[in-house]
Amino acid sequence: MKHTILFAATLLMAGSLIAADAPAAADSSAKDAVTAAAKALAGKDNYSWTTTVVVPAGGRFRPGPTTGQTEKGGYTHVSSSFGDNTTEMVLKGDKAVVSTSDNGWQTPAELDSAEGMGRFLGAMARDFKAPATLASDLVAGTSEIKKDGDAYSSDLTEVEVKTLLTFRAGNTAPTVSDAKGTAKFWITDGTLSKYETHVTGKVSFNGTDRDVDRTSTTEISAVNTTKVVVPDEAQKKMNPPAAAPEAKKP
Fold first, then answer.
1. Pairing with 46, which of 40, 99, 128, 206 sits 20 to 30 Å away (CA)?
2. Each residue of 25-40: pLDDT tens digit?
3. Which H or E run includes 185?
Protein backbone atom coordinates (compact mmCIF):
# COMPACT_ATOMS: atom_id res chain seq x y z
CA MET A 1 0.00 0.00 0.00
CA LYS A 2 2.77 2.44 -0.93
CA HIS A 3 0.13 4.67 -2.50
CA THR A 4 -1.29 5.38 0.96
CA ILE A 5 1.99 6.97 2.05
CA LEU A 6 1.95 9.23 -0.98
CA PHE A 7 -1.68 10.19 -0.43
CA ALA A 8 -0.86 11.29 3.10
CA ALA A 9 2.30 13.10 2.06
CA THR A 10 0.37 14.94 -0.62
CA LEU A 11 -2.22 16.10 1.93
CA LEU A 12 0.38 17.18 4.39
CA MET A 13 2.38 19.10 1.81
CA ALA A 14 -0.35 20.39 -0.43
CA GLY A 15 1.15 23.69 -1.41
CA SER A 16 4.90 23.62 -2.14
CA LEU A 17 7.14 25.67 -4.47
CA ILE A 18 10.63 26.49 -5.71
CA ALA A 19 11.80 29.98 -4.79
CA ALA A 20 11.83 32.66 -7.46
CA ASP A 21 15.11 33.31 -9.27
CA ALA A 22 14.89 37.09 -8.97
CA PRO A 23 14.86 38.84 -5.57
CA ALA A 24 11.41 39.95 -4.46
CA ALA A 25 10.53 43.43 -3.30
CA ALA A 26 9.53 43.78 0.36
CA ASP A 27 5.88 44.57 1.07
CA SER A 28 4.80 45.08 4.68
CA SER A 29 1.14 44.45 3.78
CA ALA A 30 1.79 41.24 1.84
CA LYS A 31 1.22 38.87 4.76
CA ASP A 32 -2.09 40.56 5.56
CA ALA A 33 -3.15 40.24 1.91
CA VAL A 34 -2.43 36.51 1.77
CA THR A 35 -4.05 35.92 5.15
CA ALA A 36 -7.19 37.71 3.99
CA ALA A 37 -7.22 35.77 0.71
CA ALA A 38 -7.06 32.42 2.52
CA LYS A 39 -9.85 33.56 4.84
CA ALA A 40 -11.92 34.62 1.82
CA LEU A 41 -11.53 31.15 0.29
CA ALA A 42 -12.61 29.52 3.55
CA GLY A 43 -15.74 31.68 3.50
CA LYS A 44 -16.89 30.52 0.05
CA ASP A 45 -19.87 28.15 -0.21
CA ASN A 46 -17.77 25.53 -1.99
CA TYR A 47 -14.69 25.00 -4.14
CA SER A 48 -12.58 22.32 -5.83
CA TRP A 49 -8.83 21.83 -5.94
CA THR A 50 -6.09 19.80 -7.58
CA THR A 51 -2.74 19.14 -5.96
CA THR A 52 0.22 17.89 -7.97
CA VAL A 53 3.52 16.75 -6.51
CA VAL A 54 6.85 16.88 -8.35
CA VAL A 55 9.97 15.03 -7.20
CA PRO A 56 13.40 14.82 -8.86
CA ALA A 57 13.81 12.44 -11.80
CA GLY A 58 14.44 8.93 -10.54
CA GLY A 59 12.66 9.60 -7.26
CA ARG A 60 11.41 6.49 -5.49
CA PHE A 61 7.82 7.63 -5.04
CA ARG A 62 5.99 9.51 -7.79
CA PRO A 63 2.36 10.12 -6.80
CA GLY A 64 -0.41 11.08 -9.16
CA PRO A 65 -2.61 14.13 -8.58
CA THR A 66 -4.94 14.60 -5.64
CA THR A 67 -8.33 16.16 -6.34
CA GLY A 68 -10.87 17.39 -3.86
CA GLN A 69 -14.15 19.18 -3.44
CA THR A 70 -15.49 20.79 -0.30
CA GLU A 71 -18.62 22.65 0.74
CA LYS A 72 -18.96 25.00 3.69
CA GLY A 73 -20.54 23.14 6.58
CA GLY A 74 -21.01 20.03 4.41
CA TYR A 75 -19.03 17.20 2.88
CA THR A 76 -15.44 17.11 1.67
CA HIS A 77 -14.40 14.43 -0.83
CA VAL A 78 -10.73 13.78 -1.62
CA SER A 79 -9.30 11.33 -4.17
CA SER A 80 -5.61 10.52 -4.67
CA SER A 81 -4.01 8.22 -7.24
CA PHE A 82 -0.75 6.32 -7.43
CA GLY A 83 -0.35 4.14 -10.48
CA ASP A 84 -3.48 2.03 -10.77
CA ASN A 85 -4.43 2.55 -7.12
CA THR A 86 -6.85 5.14 -5.79
CA THR A 87 -7.45 6.28 -2.22
CA GLU A 88 -10.60 8.20 -1.30
CA MET A 89 -11.58 10.07 1.83
CA VAL A 90 -14.90 11.65 2.79
CA LEU A 91 -15.29 13.99 5.75
CA LYS A 92 -18.09 15.96 7.36
CA GLY A 93 -17.74 17.68 10.70
CA ASP A 94 -16.02 15.27 13.06
CA LYS A 95 -16.83 12.22 10.92
CA ALA A 96 -14.55 10.66 8.32
CA VAL A 97 -14.29 7.48 6.26
CA VAL A 98 -11.47 6.22 4.06
CA SER A 99 -11.48 3.76 1.15
CA THR A 100 -8.55 2.29 -0.77
CA SER A 101 -8.24 -0.15 -3.63
CA ASP A 102 -7.54 -2.86 -1.05
CA ASN A 103 -10.41 -2.25 1.40
CA GLY A 104 -13.93 -0.90 1.61
CA TRP A 105 -14.91 2.24 3.47
CA GLN A 106 -13.61 2.34 7.04
CA THR A 107 -13.69 4.86 9.87
CA PRO A 108 -10.50 6.11 11.53
CA ALA A 109 -11.46 4.13 14.65
CA GLU A 110 -11.63 0.94 12.59
CA LEU A 111 -8.30 1.74 10.95
CA ASP A 112 -6.65 2.17 14.36
CA SER A 113 -6.53 -1.60 14.67
CA ALA A 114 -5.51 -2.20 11.05
CA GLU A 115 -2.09 -3.50 10.06
CA GLY A 116 0.50 -1.44 8.19
CA MET A 117 -0.68 1.69 6.42
CA GLY A 118 -4.31 1.34 7.47
CA ARG A 119 -3.53 2.84 10.85
CA PHE A 120 -1.60 5.62 9.14
CA LEU A 121 -4.59 6.46 6.93
CA GLY A 122 -6.83 6.74 9.97
CA ALA A 123 -4.46 9.27 11.51
CA MET A 124 -4.37 11.23 8.26
CA ALA A 125 -8.16 11.38 8.10
CA ARG A 126 -8.26 12.78 11.63
CA ASP A 127 -5.63 15.42 10.80
CA PHE A 128 -6.97 16.41 7.35
CA LYS A 129 -7.18 20.11 6.53
CA ALA A 130 -8.79 21.62 3.42
CA PRO A 131 -6.65 23.97 1.28
CA ALA A 132 -7.98 27.19 2.82
CA THR A 133 -6.93 26.02 6.28
CA LEU A 134 -3.64 24.58 5.04
CA ALA A 135 -2.79 27.85 3.32
CA SER A 136 -3.50 29.79 6.50
CA ASP A 137 -1.12 27.49 8.37
CA LEU A 138 1.50 28.07 5.69
CA VAL A 139 1.16 31.82 6.04
CA ALA A 140 1.68 31.49 9.78
CA GLY A 141 4.80 29.44 9.03
CA THR A 142 6.44 32.01 6.74
CA SER A 143 9.31 34.30 7.68
CA GLU A 144 8.59 37.40 5.57
CA ILE A 145 6.14 37.40 2.67
CA LYS A 146 7.06 39.67 -0.25
CA LYS A 147 5.20 40.67 -3.39
CA ASP A 148 6.92 38.84 -6.24
CA GLY A 149 5.47 39.71 -9.66
CA ASP A 150 1.90 38.40 -9.74
CA ALA A 151 2.42 36.30 -6.61
CA TYR A 152 3.56 36.49 -2.99
CA SER A 153 6.60 34.51 -1.84
CA SER A 154 8.47 33.71 1.36
CA ASP A 155 10.89 31.32 2.99
CA LEU A 156 9.26 28.92 5.43
CA THR A 157 10.43 28.56 9.00
CA GLU A 158 12.32 25.42 9.93
CA VAL A 159 9.44 24.38 12.19
CA GLU A 160 6.94 24.66 9.33
CA VAL A 161 9.14 22.69 6.93
CA LYS A 162 9.53 19.91 9.48
CA THR A 163 5.75 19.83 9.85
CA LEU A 164 5.34 19.47 6.08
CA LEU A 165 7.97 16.75 5.84
CA THR A 166 6.74 14.57 8.69
CA PHE A 167 3.73 12.57 9.68
CA ARG A 168 2.81 10.76 12.85
CA ALA A 169 1.50 7.20 12.94
CA GLY A 170 0.52 6.32 16.50
CA ASN A 171 3.29 7.48 18.83
CA THR A 172 6.02 7.31 16.19
CA ALA A 173 7.13 10.27 14.11
CA PRO A 174 10.13 10.74 11.80
CA THR A 175 12.95 13.12 12.62
CA VAL A 176 14.07 15.74 10.10
CA SER A 177 17.41 17.47 9.58
CA ASP A 178 18.56 20.13 7.08
CA ALA A 179 14.96 21.31 6.69
CA LYS A 180 14.50 24.15 4.20
CA GLY A 181 11.49 25.38 2.26
CA THR A 182 9.73 28.19 0.43
CA ALA A 183 6.12 29.08 -0.25
CA LYS A 184 4.33 31.08 -2.91
CA PHE A 185 0.72 32.27 -3.11
CA TRP A 186 -1.48 33.66 -5.88
CA ILE A 187 -4.60 35.76 -5.33
CA THR A 188 -7.47 36.34 -7.77
CA ASP A 189 -10.17 38.90 -6.96
CA GLY A 190 -9.21 38.91 -3.31
CA THR A 191 -9.38 35.11 -2.95
CA LEU A 192 -6.56 32.59 -2.81
CA SER A 193 -6.42 30.79 -6.17
CA LYS A 194 -3.14 28.84 -6.00
CA TYR A 195 -0.25 28.08 -3.69
CA GLU A 196 2.99 26.11 -3.90
CA THR A 197 5.69 24.93 -1.55
CA HIS A 198 9.12 23.49 -2.12
CA VAL A 199 10.58 21.56 0.81
CA THR A 200 13.84 19.66 1.24
CA GLY A 201 15.43 17.75 4.10
CA LYS A 202 16.66 14.41 5.40
CA VAL A 203 13.86 12.35 6.95
CA SER A 204 14.75 9.50 9.32
CA PHE A 205 12.14 6.91 10.25
CA ASN A 206 12.60 3.48 11.83
CA GLY A 207 16.34 3.57 11.18
CA THR A 208 16.01 4.54 7.50
CA ASP A 209 17.23 7.89 6.16
CA ARG A 210 15.73 9.41 3.03
CA ASP A 211 16.54 12.69 1.28
CA VAL A 212 13.33 14.50 0.34
CA ASP A 213 12.99 17.17 -2.34
CA ARG A 214 9.35 17.82 -3.15
CA THR A 215 7.42 20.59 -4.87
CA SER A 216 3.66 20.61 -4.34
CA THR A 217 1.21 22.85 -6.17
CA THR A 218 -2.45 23.33 -5.27
CA GLU A 219 -4.80 25.09 -7.69
CA ILE A 220 -8.28 26.19 -6.64
CA SER A 221 -11.18 26.03 -9.11
CA ALA A 222 -14.98 26.07 -9.42
CA VAL A 223 -15.41 28.46 -6.50
CA ASN A 224 -19.10 28.62 -5.55
CA THR A 225 -19.99 26.26 -8.42
CA THR A 226 -18.65 22.98 -7.03
CA LYS A 227 -21.00 20.13 -6.24
CA VAL A 228 -19.58 17.56 -3.85
CA VAL A 229 -20.52 14.04 -4.94
CA VAL A 230 -20.25 11.52 -2.11
CA PRO A 231 -20.33 7.78 -2.86
CA ASP A 232 -23.43 6.09 -1.43
CA GLU A 233 -21.34 3.56 0.52
CA ALA A 234 -19.37 6.36 2.16
CA GLN A 235 -22.56 8.12 3.25
CA LYS A 236 -23.95 4.88 4.66
CA LYS A 237 -20.74 4.25 6.57
CA MET A 238 -20.72 7.76 8.00
CA ASN A 239 -24.42 7.74 8.86
CA PRO A 240 -25.41 4.20 9.88
CA PRO A 241 -29.11 3.65 10.65
CA ALA A 242 -30.00 3.94 14.29
CA ALA A 243 -30.51 0.64 16.05
CA ALA A 244 -34.15 -0.25 16.63
CA PRO A 245 -35.17 -0.01 20.29
CA GLU A 246 -35.54 -3.32 22.07
CA ALA A 247 -39.10 -4.44 22.58
CA LYS A 248 -40.28 -4.24 26.15
CA LYS A 249 -40.93 -7.55 27.80
CA PRO A 250 -44.52 -8.09 28.94
1. 99
2. 445 599 999 999 999 9
3. strand 175-188
